[in-house]
Structures are given as C-alpha cells and as structure tokens.
C-alpha cells in the first residue's frame, strides 16, 4: 500500500503538529496569551540567530591574518622596521641570518671607504687640471643641489702620504668585487642609483651603484649554507665560518690601520666637508666602529644588523604569530590586550610586508592595499637638506609629504589604520647639533628655534594636517622653487611616533604599542569589543 504524501497528511496524522496544536477547547483569552508567547519566542529565536551569525563573522575575521604594510621613500627605514619585527617575534631566525648581515656590513664599510678614495681621485684630478668648469663644486648639476646649510670650505691639497694610503687600500676593491659577486645572483640585480644625494661628482660607474637585492633572491643562502658546515673554526651558534677562504674578514682586518688613518685624517675630513658629504649621516655607516667590525672574529650585534644597508627591490614578507602572554610592560594589567592574552583567546597570524621605496618601484605597492589592517608609513626627518637620489630636483622631505598625502587620500585605504613614524630622529638631532639650519631648506619654518623639539613638532603638525584637520597649509622648499600648498578635508585619527628605528629598545616599545593598537582596532571592527 502506498505511503501517504506530506500534502495528504492531516495534522491528526503528524505527531509534531498534533503536539503543538492549540487545545480544541481554547478560550479567546488563552488564545491571545498563546499568540503573545509565540511572538516573544520568535523574537528570542531571531536574536539568537543574529548573535550566532555575528559570532561566525567575527570568527571568520579572527582567523584571517592581520596584515601590515610598511611604506615610505627609499632609505626611510622600512626594512629596518621589518628587522625589528623579526628581532622581537622570531629572534631565532634573526640570529640565523647574522652571517649574511656580516657580509652586508663588510660591503657597507668598503663602500664608505671607497667614497673617500674616489673623492681623493677626483680632487687629485681637478688639482692637476685646475679649471673652474671641471671642478666638482661647479659641476652642471650644482644648481639642483639644495643650498648648503653650512659654510663651504675650499678643497684641501692632498699630500704624497694620502696617495700612498690610497694605494695601500687597493685590496679593498677586490673585497668589494668578491662580496658583490657572492651576494648577487649571476643575473646582476643591481639598480643604478647615485652614491649620495649630496654629491654630484663624476665618480666611476661602480661607485654610483647601490647594492640592492631582489627579495625573491636567495642571497642569504650564500652564507646560510655555512650553517650546515660543521668545521671546528666555525661559530656554529652564529653560523659564521671564520676560516672560510672566501671570507674577506682577514683583508679587512689587515687594512684596519690604514682605513682608520684615512677616516681620522684632518685633510680628508676637510675634503668631505668641502664636498658637503657627511658620511656619518649616510646609510650603512660603520667607520666610527672600524676596530670592532674589522676584528678577526667579528660577530654583528643586533644594532649592527639594524644599521646595515641593503636596498630592497620587490617585496619581503615576515610572518609571525602573536603569542599569548608575551610581556609588554606598557600594556596595563586591565587592558584589553592583556585580558585577551591572559585568556589565550588570541593567537593571531601576522603578516608584515616590506616593499622597495624608490620611485620606480612604487607602482608595485597598490596590489597590497586590499584587505590591510594598517600601514606603517616611515618619513625620515633628517634628510631635510637632501634631494631624492632618483630625482635630484625633489627635496626628500617634500617627497615624503606628498607620498603621505597620496596614501591618506587613496580610495582603497579610507578604512586602513595609518601609523606615521617620523624617523631618523637621531640623525636629525646630530645634524641640528652640528649647526645645520633647518630653515635654510624649509623656508616656511621661519625663525623658529633650530632645535629637535621645535623642528620635529613642526613637521608632525605638517603631516597631521592631511589627516586630522581641515584647511590649507604650505611648506616652502627653495630647491624645487615650489610652494607645496595643500588642503585637507579629512578627519581621520592621527597616530604618530618620533622614531629612530635603529634603536632596538625604543623601537621595541613603539612596536608593542602599535601591535596593541592594531589588535584593538581589529577587534572593534569584528564587533568583539
Ligand atoms: N641612524 C639611523 N639610521 C637609520 C634609521 N632608520 C633607518 N636607518 C638606516 O638607514 C638605512 C636605510 O634603511 P632601510 O630600512 O634599508 O630603508 P628602506 O626604507 O627599506 O629603503 P628601500 O629598501 O630602498 O626602500 C639603513 O642603513 C638603516 O640602518 C634611524 O632611525 N636612524
Ligand atoms: Mg628596504
């Protein structure tokens, strides 16, 4: 016999319908009460459904990694900030890379010395043919330089001792060659850049290039291989093989006396000043630590690694998990993050992206704008008297401001947390202390005091105007003869820190606060708080 279909089934046949059906003798009052109860039950059920839905959405968001992008012009300190993240969150991996960074530091040392040697050659050539038109100071691009913030000195005359010193340092050129070859894959991924924005000297081709390694290249493997090598001469913990025949440590060690003599020579210092070169403010400067970094068993410290300079091409990514219970002295015991950590509610994946900041590389940034939690934008304050390497017409401070404006007003980033690091504060302080006048290049600064406090707060205000104020303002920089007049209608929160990201201790504190802020915002977005 065929079973009755659902439509054929009466409520008498359906046990559930029978169970919930109203009693046949229900009075009008009872009916009204029943309908009211059913209405309330439905409301409760809908509220529970909505809560479950909300929690599901939040969990989904919780599971996706927190993404942070580091932005800023070239040499602003992005990769150095990434190294700080690594040092804090993956110290073992950071340590494992010491051998590779040691090679970069050796190259940085050689490059600084080479700058001096090339300068000596140029000075010698111009003294042999003393024509005003060929002198470095009168080079055609001189007009594009910012006005000198300190008095220009006459170029000194080099003695035969200087020339002997230069000859004795010849082996360093081989060190440079061999380190270049080892660090770079055969394709040769160097991008030509000028040696320094303050020199327009006719230097040899090699000296005008800055070493840059594509992030996808396995340059660290050239040295990382040593990790598996178990030789007795090796510091296995640091992964450095001091007896490696290709290691240039011995040559550098043997050249220490001459390098030190060169760097501390008064005539050489005058020559540098006459050409407006302050090596001590440049990236990858180790000449004040020559004895230590050329020691036979030199192992780079954390600070050395942060100071090492290697230009980024491409994008590097650092992943880590924010562990529960990691100590943050700044997090108050009752704060949300502490509670979340204590309750072990939060073990989130983090991804920090570091991109190349040179002008030609900025087009590669946009694909990373999607789905970002925060951008840490680095604007170095110290190069207020320098122009861009890639565009000698543009002041570096002005470039940072315009870049910041482009990020603040970018349509894909309206909901992204923007955190500004006004960086290289240590170099800014040193420059101001050396008597370099801020208002010589930033004319709009007027006659305000030439102190760190006044100049840095002035720039904080300028950057802040784009995000948290309405109105117009200007920054006058004569090198470009441009008045950077801007207006802003935005009122986003303005998170700003004065940083020196080569300083491990202060940067640790700032990054912990930044992580706290990002987690907080992320939870707020997920409606968890
Ligand atoms: N003294 C000092 N040096 C800094 C500071 N921040 C960065 N540097 C140095 O400046 C140089 C450039 O820093 P990077 O982190 O390589 O710059 P970047 O923004 O990654 O540059 P690109 O890769 O070219 O885009 C490095 O030698 C750093 O050690 C700082 O606050 N103070
Ligand atoms: Mg970089």
What report would you give on this structure?
The protein is of the alpha/beta class and 529 residues long. The protein folds into two domains: 67-91 and 313-525, P-loop containing nucleotide triphosphate hydrolases (Rossmann fold, 3-Layer(aba) Sandwich); 97-296, no CATH class. Helices cover 41% and strands 13% of the residues. It contains 18 helices and 14 strands. It has helices at residues 15-20, 28-63, 78-89, 91-96, 98-128, 160-168, 171-183, 221-224, 249-254, 256-263, 266-274, 290-293, 302-307, 336-342, 396-408, 425-433, 452-468, 504-525; strands at 66-71, 191-192, 209-210, 212-214, 234-235, 240-241, 311-313, 315-322, 348-355, 374-380, 417-423, 471-477, 482-488, 495-498. It starts with 14 loop residues before the first helix and ends with a helix. The structure holds guanosine-5'-triphosphate and magnesium ion (MG). The site of guanosine-5'-triphosphate has 25 residues, from helix 3, helix 13, strand 7 and helix 16.
The beta-strand count equals: 14
Number of domains: 2
Strand content: 5-15%
Helix-residue proportion: 40-55%
Describe the global form: elongated
Largest sheet: 6 strands, mixed
CATH architecture of the largest domain: 3-Layer(aba) Sandwich
Total helices: the number is 18
* CATH homologous superfamily (4th level) name of the largest domain: P-loop containing nucleotide triphosphate hydrolases
What would you call the structural class? alpha/beta
Q: What strand line-up does the widest sheet have?
A: 8-9-1-10-11-14
Bound molecule types: guanosine-5'-triphosphate, magnesium ion
GO molecular function, one term: GTPase activity
Protein name: Guanine nucleotide binding protein, alpha subunit
GO cellular component, one term: heterotrimeric G-protein complex
Keywords: GTP-binding, Magnesium, Metal-binding, Nucleotide-binding, Transducer
